[in-house]
Amino acid sequence: MLAQTHSYARSGPPAAAPDQPRDGQPSLIGITRSFGRGQEVFGEGDSADHVYRVVSGAVRVQRVLADGRRQIEEFYLPGDVFGVEFSALRRATAETLGETTLVVARRTTAAADPAQAERLWDHALRELARCHDHVLTLGLRSAAERIATFLVELAARLGGDDEVELPMSRQDIADYLGLTIETVSRTLTQLQTRGLIRLNGCRHIRFARPAALAELCE
Amino acid sequence: MLAQTHSYARSGPPAAAPDQPRDGQPSLIGITRSFGRGQEVFGEGDSADHVYRVVSGAVRVQRVLADGRRQIEEFYLPGDVFGVEFSALRRATAETLGETTLVVARRTTAAADPAQAERLWDHALRELARCHDHVLTLGLRSAAERIATFLVELAARLGGDDEVELPMSRQDIADYLGLTIETVSRTLTQLQTRGLIRLNGCRHIRFARPAALAELCE
DNA sequence: CGGACTTTTGAGCCACGTCAAGAGAAGTGG
DNA sequence: CCACTTCTCTTGACGTGGCTCAAAAGTCCG
Asked: Are the beta carbons of A139 and B177 separated by less than 8 Å?
């Protein structure tokens, strides 16, 4: 079923391959698979029998209402696990942001291995904490605070030292933060005008005054 | 440590007592403890070594920023489990909404029992799905849609057939939905004026036109 | 160089927030 | 049981942050 909607490896071997992250612990064992830009990994209503780990690239998980409004629930970056759900069916859609490589594993297989099961459990709880943080941002922060929070967290996750290379478009950021694309764009220019950040091309951002930026995140 | 901040049972026996939910499965085994209105169950920064199940009453879990803004992450109603976290320390505060009885268990004890561990896992994933739904509401719904969604979900969780008895104040609803208390109040009267709901006292709401209300939830 | 797409900028508007006051509701003491 | 206090909820008038609509300026590729 997965095979029908996915494009197969173009850069890596499509055969089964054990995956070893840096610390030597198997976070998720499965096949490595490559996707092109904007491809669907799974869709709402699909059966939720696989879990994924991002090797390179990035993924957005989103829901779209009947009237077309879209909310991005989460972005997943290299090292992140996604696709673990309570329900047997997907409640959201996952799409790649650019050229992306994932490790794909059967959920039941991963859950059967104690070491991997432990990792899945940790992952779910960490994801829950991140989701609660997101609720905080959406519930009570202003546009500037949302953008600042987003940039700072993204830089931390990507390991950037006072700079980020955005893997997503303005529209994606807007739909993640509950804003419009215009507000995202305006807020970024305003942060630049205030001297907090510096834009080099629209995807590369340098933190000119990290402390002031952190202050906006409370 | 718990004993220092809690009030002990006034209605039930404070001694250890096995807990058996309706289906006969032990969802959480521990001591039953009663709380008065507005009491703290745990606070931000406390060690997160216990998990809880609501027997009666209700609990809010919230975070407060330095400037006083408050976000309620979730309400917990009879049957709900709360207090499972990734981190060793609490990232939020839990308080009772009224007279409330909880089952308290050590997390390590519950996790050691396979049946309970399975329940904890299910609970965490269900909670994650609910949190993602909350993100959807905060990210892209209008005030009227947020209130409608909130009321419909609350009625479903409390088992009310087209009516709800609100266990929380207007301020709590506002801080849960990312609105102000005035907007919550105005929106409720507006829903009543439109004939969708009927308020009998400010805590009791009857759904006059359930279909129209459901439409607001998409 | 040309075409499609993304981002930025501008002008005006509106949903929701803010500030303020009044109306209930609930607890307290006499 | 009733005054009194206190807290919560409602309503009104007004302000504003972010949305909408529109167009220009980049940016990316073939």
From this structure: yes
